[in-house]
Amino acid sequence: MRKSKAKRLSEQADYQRAYRMQQKALRKPSRDDVARVALHLMIGEALKHNQDGKLDEWCAALVGRLADQGFDRDAAHRRVDELIERYADGWAFQRKPHLDLPQGGSMRSQGHRFPPLLR
């Protein structure tokens, strides 16, 4: 007999929560973490080396791809311009408090408990 939809969704949410905790404890960067660093690096390097033309080309390509995915072209352009301006003004990433643990420390040693699902 199949589980109810509510039961499946609840179990899926529990699994996802445990998975995220495990990834955090392993200090494994997410896809979004890698993308943020890559974006910061690309924009920062272009600004540092006065490559405005290259930055404009990259911006146009990025906005085009976002529009192809269904995002509003003007809104995407504004968002990219906003990020470039922030980086140009010296904006840095928000720190990730879970990475402030002592090197070699684990979340478990800090009192965090993992659900049995991923032990």
Could you describe the 3D structure shown?
- The protein is mainly alpha-helical.
- It has one domain (5-94, 101-118).
- 61% of the residues lie in helices and 0% in strands.
- It contains four helices and no strands.
- It has helices at 5-25, 31-48, 52-68, 73-88.
Write a brief caption for the model:
By secondary structure, the chain is an all-alpha fold. Helix content is 61%, strand content 0%. The chain has helices spanning 5-25, 31-48, 52-68, 73-88.
Mean pLDDT: 84
**Element-level helix/strand string:** HHHH
- Overall geometry comes to flat
Largest sheet: none
Question: How many domains is the backbone divided into?
Answer: 1
Low-confidence stretches: 114-119
**Helix run count:** 4
> What is the straight-line distance between the termini?
28 Å
Number of separate strands:
0
Task: Summarize the amount of helix as a percent range.
Answer: 55-70%
Structural class determined from secondary elements: mainly alpha
Instruction: Work out the radius of gyration.
Output: 20 Å
The fraction of residues assigned to DSSP E strands is under 5%
What is the topology?
Blueprint: H1 5-25, H2 31-48, H3 52-68, H4 73-88
List keywords for this structure.
119 residues; mainly alpha; 61% helix; disordered C terminus
